[in-house]
């Protein structure tokens, strides 16, 4: 079997992987790389999900790349527009030529003797095994299972005579024209589906077990559009990006410091949208803002469909499915020709990758997460994870910059191995994500831990990460550099000293 070698292998050709390709060829141009993508097309989330109305839940001035201005009028963009943006980015920069499609990455084994990873993939068309080697492995495959979303067990579902679908498995033959539809869920997918489906359906009911905070925001950013008409595209983009970053950080900190004040602000906005006669208990969660993600609705489209009577909200628990629909714990039955189970994702670390280091199988759930991207005692492997309280790409851009700095430092010093080590005996263990959302809590034990101190602490703060990842020292007393190139003068490993 022929084994191809690259300096860097990127796994995943979605928004993170395409960004990683750009940063590598810009900031570490002498490094060879390839992108391994399981599917037959690029785009990741924005190519996989095809349900009605799919759109960003962040503004495109921060969800877009730092290096490529978003030029369309809509700040809250639809899925096809985002996919076109990704394709354009890949084509403009030749990144699309680096993608190997149909490669499902299954295993990766590190050898300190060779200072490289052996990566084993399975070709999706034939099942054939193919191997690659690389000096650095960069996982950009997201955090959820692409095979299937989360579908809870429903009693009586076998009796139901309509169609039950999960949005992750949406297909073009799903007909809801003039049909009665029930959407189960109250998260970002549900609040996107309901107003879009209500345009054609006879009626859409959003059935939620508990409410979510929903915030209306203009689909277009008036200031952004004005700035773009007056300034060069890149200048306007940078200004808008920073404006939105700072506003987002301010709002998140307000949620943490003064939750009751923010709760009142959000609910006053809902009341203004829906009018005094609507029962806003359907939008009044029991938890504080940002204990779970907030849902964004552009131009209040969900509220408009509720006011027009095209859609409704029911807060109740499912007892069982019936032949005609869903029977609730309250005894009420919701008739439905189509039920959409917008019940969330199945989270999955590194797409289920099996990781081995010098013959030892690694359980990544037992590791600590270094700077939100690397894993204690695992050399030369990074993963790209975005923010939970801001746009995904903000953190991914910074992660890519740091990975390039790390690669460049190793090249300059002739050291081939970079391994984060935990040496502080006083550091406490904390969950990887501080969110109470069901999709997080179902899978939290599968993910690494964060520590109580930097660089093991996840601050979910762009300004702090900017200082750490763009300007902070690569040799920080925690990252161990070792494994000199053959023939190079030996250098002492940089090992953290316990404080």
UniProtKB/TrEMBL annotation:
Give the transmembrane region(s): none
Q: Which UniProt keywords apply?
A: FAD, Flavoprotein, Monooxygenase, NADP, Oxidoreductase
Q: Which Pfam families match?
A: FMO-like, NAD_binding_8
| InterPro entries on file | FAD-binding_MO (IPR051820), FAD/NAD-bd_sf (IPR036188), Flavin_mOase-like (IPR020946)
Q: Which GO terms describe its molecular function?
A: flavin adenine dinucleotide binding; N,N-dimethylaniline monooxygenase activity; NADP binding
Give cofactor(s), names only: FAD
Give the SUPFAM superfamilies listed for this entry.
FAD/NAD(P)-binding domain
Q: Which PANTHER family does this chain map to?
A: MONOOXYGENASE, PUTATIVE (AFU_ORTHOLOGUE AFUA_8G02570)-RELATED
What is stated as this protein's family in its record? Belongs to the FAD-binding monooxygenase family.
Quote the protein name from its UniProt record: Flavin-binding family monooxygenase
> In the record, what lineage is assigned to the organism producing the protein?
Bacteria, Pseudomonadati, Pseudomonadota, Alphaproteobacteria, Hyphomicrobiales
């Amino acid at each position: 079997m022929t084994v191809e070698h690259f300096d860097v292998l990127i796994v995943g050709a979605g928004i993170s992987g395409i960004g990683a390709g750009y940063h590598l060829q810009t900031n570490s141009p002498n490094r060879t790389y390839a992108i391994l993508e399981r599917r037959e097309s690029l785009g990741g989330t924005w190519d996989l999900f095809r349900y009605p109305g799919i759109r960003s839940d962040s503004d495109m001035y921060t969800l877009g790349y730092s290096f490529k201005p978003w030029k369309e009028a809509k700040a809250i963009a639809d899925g096809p527009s985002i996919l076109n943006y990704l394709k354009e980015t890949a084509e403009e920069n030749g990144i699309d030529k680096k993608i190997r499609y149909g490669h499902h990455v299954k295993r990766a084994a590190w050898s300190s003797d060779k200072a490289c990873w052996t990566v084993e993939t399975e070709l999706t068309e034939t099942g054939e095994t193919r191997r690659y080697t690389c000096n650095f492995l960069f996982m950009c495959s997201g955090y959820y299972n692409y095979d299937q979303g989360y579908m809870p067990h429903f009693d009586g579902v076998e009796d139901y005579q309509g169609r039950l679908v999960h949005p992750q498995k949406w297909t073009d033959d799903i007909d809801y024209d003039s049909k009665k539809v029930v959407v189960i869920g109250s998260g970002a997918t549900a609040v996107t589906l309901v107003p879009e489906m209500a345009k054609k359906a006879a009626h859409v009911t959003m059935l939620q077990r508990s409410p979510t905070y929903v915030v209306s925001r203009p689909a277009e950013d008036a200031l952004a559009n004005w700035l773009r008409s007056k300034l060069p595209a890149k200048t306007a983009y940078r200004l808008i990006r920073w404006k939105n970053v700072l506003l987002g950080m301010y709002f998140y900190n307000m949620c943490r410091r003064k939750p009751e004040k923010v709760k009142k602000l959000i609910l006053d906005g809902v009341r203004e949208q829906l009018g005094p006669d609507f029962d806003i208990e359907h939008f009044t969660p029991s938890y504080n803002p940002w204990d779970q993600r907030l849902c964004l609705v552009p131009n209040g489209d969900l509220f408009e469909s509720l006011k027009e009577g095209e859609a409704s909200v029911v807060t109740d628990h499912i007892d069982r499915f019936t032949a005609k629909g869903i029977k609730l714990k309250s005894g009420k039955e919701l008739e439905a020709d189509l039920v959409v189970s917008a019940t969330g994702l199945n989270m999955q670390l590194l797409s289920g990758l099996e990781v081995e280091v010098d013959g030892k199988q690694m359980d990544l759930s037992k590791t600590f997460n270094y700077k939100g991207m690397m894993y204690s005692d695992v050399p030369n492997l990074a993963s790209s994870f975005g923010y939970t309280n801001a746009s995904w790409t903000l953190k991914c851009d910074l992660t890519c910059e740091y990975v390039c700095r790390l690669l460049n430092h190793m090249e300059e010093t002739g050291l081939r191995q970079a391994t984060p080590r935990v040496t502080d005996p006083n550091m406490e263990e904390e969950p990887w994500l501080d969110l109470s959302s069901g999709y997080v809590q179902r899978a939290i034990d599968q993910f690494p831990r964060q520590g109580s101190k930097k660089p093991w602490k996840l601050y979910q703060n762009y300004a702090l990460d900017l200082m750490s990842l763009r300007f902070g020292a690569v040799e920080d007393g925690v990252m161990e550099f070792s494994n000199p190139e053959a023939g190079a003068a030996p250098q002492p490993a940089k090992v953290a000293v316990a404080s």
